[in-house]
Design a protein that fits this description.
By secondary structure, this protein is α/β, with parallel strands linked by helices. The protein has a single domain, classed as Rossmann fold. It has eight helices and seven strands; from the N terminus they run E-H-E-H-E-H-E-H-E-H-E-H-H-H-E. Strands 3-2-1-4-5-6-7 form a seven-stranded parallel beta sheet, sandwiched between helices. The longest helix has 28 residues. The chain starts with 8 loop residues before the first strand and ends in a 7-residue tail after the last strand. This is NAD(P)-dependent dehydrogenase, short-chain alcohol dehydrogenase family. One of its GO terms (molecular function) is oxidoreductase activity. It comes from Actinacidiphila glaucinigra. Belongs to the short-chain dehydrogenases/reductases (SDR) family. InterPro entries: NAD(P)-bd_dom_sf (IPR036291), Sc_DH/Rdtase_CS (IPR020904), SDR_fam (IPR002347).
C-alpha cells in the first residue's frame, strides 16, 4: 500500500461501519493518523483495535454529529492529540428515508435534515479553520446519487443530500485560497450493512435499484474508500468543488 497520506491527521465521521470504516482502514494503511467520530463506543473501539492490529494509527472519540458541541470537541481532540488536522471524510448520515410527502411529518423531516445535512455543516464549520491552521488539506463529503437526481418517496433524504453538494461547493470557494479543497462523493448503491438492512425492510427496492445500474451490481465499500483516499491525497490537488460520481454509471443515464 502507498504512503501518500503519511503524516496526515484525518477525521472520519461515521467511521465504525460501512464506507466510513472501510475508509478509516484504507487511510491508516496509507500512513494517515485516523480519528474516528461516531456514537457507538464499543464499535469505535473495535474499529481502532482492528486498525492498530494491522499496523495503523487510529483513535476514537464518541461523537453525535447532529450536536455541534460534539463536532467541535472531535476537531479539537484531533488537533490537540495529534498536532493538527489535514483532512476529513464526512461520512455520517443515513436513516429510514422511504417516506413520501404525505407520510413525512415535521419530526421526521427535522431528523433527516439534522442527520444528513446539518451534520455536514457543523463538520465543515469546525474542520475548515483547523485544516487552514495546519497548512491546508482536503475534505470529502459523502453525499449520494440523491444529491444530483430526484427519487420518488424520499423527499427529506433527497433534499438533504442536494444540500450537501451545495455546502461542498460553497466551502470549496470559501477556502480555496487558504489551501483547503472540498469535494463531494455522489455515491451510488454500495454493498454496506445499511443497504442490507434497507432491503430487509423494503425487499421490493433491491431489483428496482440494481436494474438502474449499468454495471448491474452494487459497488464495494473499498471502491469508495480508495476514491476518498485519492481525494484526500496531494495527488488530487487540482480537484476542488466537485461532485464526483462513484455509482457504476447510475447518473450517466
Amino acid at each position: 500500500m502507498s504512503s501518500r497520506l503519511e503524516s496526515k491527521v484525518v477525521i472520519v465521521t461515521g467511521g465504525t461501519s460501512g464506507m466510513g470504516a472501510a475508509f478509516a482502514r484504507r487511510a491508516a494503511s496509507e500512513g494517515a493518523t485516523v480519528v474516528i467520530g461516531a456514537r457507538d463506543k464499543a464499535r469505535g473501539e473495535a474499529a481502532v483495535a482492528g486498525i492498530a492490529a494491522a499496523g495503523g494509527r487510529a483513535s476514537f472519540l464518541p461523537t453525535d454529529v447532529t450536536t455541534e458541541d460534539d463536532v467541535s470537541r472531535l476537531v479539537d481532540y484531533a488537533v490537540t492529540e495529534f498536532g493538527g488536522l489535514h483532512g476529513a471524510f464526512n461520512n455520517a448520515g443515513g436513516g429510514d428515508n422511504q417516506r413520501t410527502f404525505g407520510t413525512t411529518d415535521a419530526a421526521f423531516w427535522d431528523h433527516m435534515i439534522a442527520t444528513n445535512l446539518t451534520s455536514v455543516f457543523y463538520s465543515l464549520k469546525h474542520e475548515l479553520p483547523a485544516i487552514t491552521a495546519s497548512g491546508g488539506g482536503s475534505i470529502v463529503n459523502n453525499a449520494s446519487t440523491a444529491a444530483v437526481v430526484g427519487d420518488a418517496g424520499m423527499p427529506a433524504y433527497v433534499a438533504a443530500k442536494h444540500g450537501v453538494v451545495g455546502l461542498t461547493r460553497s466551502a470549496a470557494l470559501d477556502s480555496a485560497k487558504a489551501g483547503v479543497r472540498v469535494n463531494a462523493l455522489v455515491t451510488g448503491l454500495i454493498d454496506t450493512p445499511l443497504w442490507r438492512s434497507a432491503i430487509q425492510a423494503y425487499p421490493e427496492i433491491e431489483d428496482r435499484f440494481l436494474g438502474q445500474i449499468p454495471t448491474g451490481r452494487p459497488g464495494a465499500e473499498e471502491d469508495v474508500a480508495a476514491f476518498a483516499a485519492f481525494l484526500l491525497s496531494d495527488e488530487s490537488r487540482f480537484v476542488n468543488g466537485a461532485a464526483l460520481a462513484i455509482d457504476g454509471g447510475f447518473t450517466a443515464r
